[in-house]
Amino acid sequence: MKLHFHGHACFEISSSQKKIIIDPWLKGNPQASVEPEEVQVDAVLVTHGHHDHLGDAVTIAKNCDAVIIAPTELAYYCETFGVKTHAMHIGGSFNFSFGKVKMTPAWHGSAVMSEGKIIYTGTPCGFLINMENKIIYHAGDTALFKDMELLGEQYEIDVALLPIGDNFTMGMDDGVLAVQMLKPKVVIPMHYNTFPQIKQDVEYFVEKAKGLNMSTVTVLKPGEEFIL
Ligand code: NI
Ligand code: MN
């Protein structure tokens, strides 16, 4: 299993058989390490409609004939562009050919800003992904919430991808509390340093999270990979 970080909140996950991408904002992302045209995946998972997450999902899904997996309202929005979608909602799981996905809550918003109009796209989410018996939790854009404790009790999370940028999501102190509740084997911070509002000294998070003596903390630069 391989996790490839493309910057911001975008991760590509490869098993021996299949490849998926989460929140593929590549064009216009100052951190992006690939072009949407270079991406070859079986599925595109999108946590919410904000441009820095929906990004190039439709382009990639079209290029690869891949399915977009998203909360129902966002899936419906994507469908209007003629791509295959699979709608889910918070708390639901489904077995896909690449593995099992559970949609988890996220405290945030979800809308597409298009030509001066706001199109609301329902509730944002996170994803618990089980591929080849590894459990990866992509929290999406979210505030800290106490039910993360439940996720930590229910699942043995191998890797947790957590936003730490503050302003739009959890900041670093809340991120440390999230680690405490989720008890993942490995934590990878995301959603920071892309915009001036979310500039963070990630070393602060690394030190505090390591201090819990619970998880390994791995900082990936855009383009870097993590093998699990
Ligand atoms: Ni957002
Ligand atoms: Mn975001």
What is the fold's blueprint, element by element?
Elements: E1 2-5, E2 11-14, E3 19-22, E4 43-45, H1 51-54, H2 57-64, E5 67-71, H3 72-79, E6 85-88, E7 93-96, E8 99-105, E9 111-114, E10 117-120, E11 125-131, E12 134-138, H4 148-154, E13 159-163, H5 172-182, E14 186-190, H6 202-210, E15 216-217, E16 225-227
Parallel strand pairs: 3-4, 4-5, 5-6, 12-13, 13-14, 14-15
Antiparallel strand pairs: 1-2, 1-16, 2-3, 7-8, 8-11, 9-10, 11-12
Manganese (II) ion binds at residues 50, 52-53, 141, 168, 191.
3D structure, described in words:
With 228 residues, this protein is α/β, with parallel strands linked by helices. The protein has helices at residues 51-54, 57-64, 72-79, 148-154, 172-182, 202-210; strands at 2-5, 11-14, 19-22, 43-45, 67-71, 85-88, 93-96, 99-105, 111-114, 117-120, 125-131, 134-138, 159-163, 186-190, 216-217, 225-227. The longest helix has 11 residues, at 172-182. The radius of gyration is 16 Å and the shape is globular. The mean pLDDT is 97. The structure holds nickel (II) ion and manganese (II) ion. Nickel (II) ion (NI) binds next to loops.
